[in-house]
Amino acid sequence: MSDRDPLSELERALDVLGDQFGVAAGTVPTDVVDEGDSFVVRADLPGYDSDDIDVQLAEGRTLTISADHSEERETDDGRYVQRERRQESLSRSVSLPEPVAESGTTADYDDGVLTVTLPKATDDEDGTSIPVN
């Protein structure tokens, strides 16, 4: 009998893959672009609705993107009844290299990609919630 734990080995393999590609399981792949007067953060969130996404800005420098989605599906073909539930949650915090202004900050979600535009600040501001269009 072997002392191998296949689930532990699978988790280790997924961690190695995540490290190699720079994305850990359960996080949101993001790009941060410095456009001079603003930062643009793009996050891949396929399969979510804009209502599932929450974008928060804390201390003018930390952007947190989280998404929660759940669905329930039931089928009945006369002989078999099947009920499936799916819950998925992702989260990612990004520290920006410079403070950003709350005013003028926008978030748009289109074809599975969230784009957050954050104008650079001249002074620090408190945290805020950013609505997703």
TrEMBL record:
Gene3D superfamilies: 2.60.40.790. It holds the Pfam family HSP20. SUPFAM superfamilies: HSP20-like chaperones. Coiled coil: none annotated. Residues 62-112 are annotated as: Disordered. Residues 21-133 form the SHSP domain. PROSITE patterns: SHSP (PS01031). InterPro entries: A-crystallin/Hsp20_dom (IPR002068), HSP20-like_chaperone (IPR008978), Small_HSP (IPR031107). Residues 68-89 have a biased composition (Basic and acidic residues). Belongs to the small heat shock protein (HSP20) family. This is Hsp20/alpha crystallin family protein.
